[in-house]
Design brief:
Blueprint: H1 3-12, H2 32-37, H3 40-45, E1 53-56, H4 60-65, H5 69-87, E2 92-96, H6 104-121, E3 125-126, H7 129-137, E4 147-149, H8 158-161, E5 165-166, E6 169-171
Parallel strand pairs: 1-2, 2-3
Antiparallel strand pairs: 4-6, 5-6
């Protein structure tokens, strides 16, 4: 299961905790400007009811898309935080570091910007980079999943992969 389902299951195993509904609003390939400028923020995030915690992880796609990452990424991130604080004033916002996907220097640069924005905004940082990097030392795909186009899977295997189909993709 994806992280949000694992969280729901773990929290549900504690009878003294209230029910949890973890929502993953992430979209593959997205960057902050596209989230805001496309209207997706207003459509999919702005009106979500009763949020207690909001974990935000951006950087990888922003770095690839922005001409001036060092200036525009922090500015875009601050804008997104402002929207979240306005629309979800009772939620605790937590910024997350990126995973080790890029070269180490690029990852550290992105994470330094995340930490600086968090510090300026007075927000906590959930630093997932070190643990993710440690797992990757044990094997290149320890925490990754792979996507396969369903139309590339022979039809006689479709029933077998059915639990892993999301849209037109098989995630394993």
């Amino acid at each position: 299961p994806h992280l949000e389902k694992v969280l729901e299951q773990l929290l549900a195993s504690h009878s003294d905790l209230p029910p949890c509904n973890a929502i993953n609003s992430g979209v593959s390939g997205e960057f902050i400007r596209r989230l805001i400028d496309s209207g997706r923020y207003q459509r999919d995030v702005e009106k979500l009811p009763g949020l207690d915690w909001i974990f935000v992880r951006y950087g990888l796609n922003d770095r690839a898309r922005l001409e001036n990452f060092a200036e525009d990424f922090p500015s875009d991130f601050r804008e997104l935080i402002g929207l979240l604080q306005k629309d979800h004033p009772s939620a605790q916002i937590v910024l997350m570091t990126v995973i080790p996907f890029s070269a180490p220097e690029a990852s550290e640069d992105m994470n330094a910007h995340v930490r600086a924005v968090a510090e300026q905004a007075g927000l906590p940082v959930f630093d997932i980079f070190p643990r993710y990097a440690a797992e990757l030392e044990r094997g290149e795909n320890m925490l990754n999943y792979r996507r396969y186009a369903l139309d590339k899977v022979p039809e006689n295997y479709h029933a077998l992969v059915a639990p892993f189909v999301h849209g037109d993709q098989v995630l394993v």
